[in-house]
Specification:
By secondary structure, the chain is α+β, with helices and mostly antiparallel strands. Helix content is 45%, strand content 16%. The strands form two sheets. It has a five-stranded antiparallel beta sheet. A three-stranded antiparallel beta sheet has the order 6-7-8. Helix 1 packs across helix 2. The radius of gyration is 24 Å and the shape is globular.
């Protein structure tokens, strides 16, 4: 075999064919690596293709654009409405989108109907009919890029003492407002995932804080504390398909959650106090 290859290399046509074969093999390897990375980024779609296809079709009036990404709660994608306005769509995977979860999220929205704080990302679309689809407004810049998270903002050189005070006061007032409401079971509303990674910042031309938005409100309440605890355990074991930087960011902040959210025996005591703990840390 080696002798034949050597003989082939001695002829122009043989040399050309071997080089061509090598290039095709290299391209095949590159294609395989890229396909694997795409599959890892959107592993939810490959595991539950029909579910996510149905969820996308349910979001009538919106077009999905760009790449899908994993988030703590499910699959995240930018969408565009008929007026070309962009927003962020999060679809919970089928194992999380239970009937009880959807029902509790509906009760959460009913409890806040007509009284939605300006610093909580608002929901322009929700579908909880055998799936869990939400579209959140206020998490993208005017250029349709993701806003800077508080994780990044605290490291920014323009983050002044005055901005720090604004951030703390805004979060405190928003949570206090949220905690005044109850769902029809009597449970007090709470966020439950108040981390720097879920708080987003808009800045003005001078790089000063102009607006703060808290994302994913109502997800933890809808899941319930036991299911949320299991989700954090999946995160710790690397079972949630996230990009590396997102997983590391969340893992570094999970300790900010209240102890009762991180201890299985205490999850039944989770409530608004969890937000106060996260705020204090």
């Amino acid at each position: 075999m080696i002798q034949r290859i050597q003989l082939a290399l001695e002829t122009p046509i043989g040399f050309f064919l071997i080089v061509l074969f090598g290039l095709l093999l290299a391209l095949l390897c590159v294609y395989g690596i890229m396909a694997l990375r795409i599959r890892q980024r959107d592993v939810y779609r490959y595991r539950h293709a029909r579910y996510f296809e149905a969820a996308e079709k349910a979001a009538t009036g919106y077009r999905f654009i760009g790449q899908h990404h994993g988030s703590f709660f499910g699959r995240e994608t930018q969408v565009r409405d008929q007026k070309e306005r962009r927003a962020l769509c999060i679809i919970l995977p089928p194992e999380m989108a239970t009937t009880d979860c959807c029902d509790r999220f509906g009760r959460f929205l009913d409890a806040r109907e007509g009284r939605w704080p300006s610093h909580l990302a608002s929901y322009s679309f929700v579908d909880c009919n055998h799936r869990f689809v939400t579209i959140q407004q206020g998490l993208l810049s005017s250029e349709a890029t993701p806003l800077m998270s508080l994780t990044a903002y605290v490291k920014d050189k323009y983050f002044t003492t005055i901005d720090k005070e604004k951030v703390l006061m805004t979060i405190a007032h928003t949570m206090a407002d949220l905690h005044t409401s109850h769902i029809n079971t009597g449970e007090t509303l709470y966020h439950g995932f108040l981390l720097p990674a879920t708080i987003f910042i808009e800045r003005d031309a001078a790089h000063r804080l102009s607006h703060l938005t808290i994302a994913d409100t109502g997800f933890v309440l809808a899941m319930g504390p036991a299911a949320f605890y299991q989700r954090t355990q999946q995160l710790a074991r690397g079972k949630i398909p996230l990009e590396k930087y997102r997983r590391e960011e969340l893992l570094s902040q999970i300790a900010m959650l209240a102890p009762e959210q991180r201890e299985e025996k205490r999850v039944n005591t989770v409530g608004p106090a969890a937000d106060f703990f996260a705020f204090g840390t």
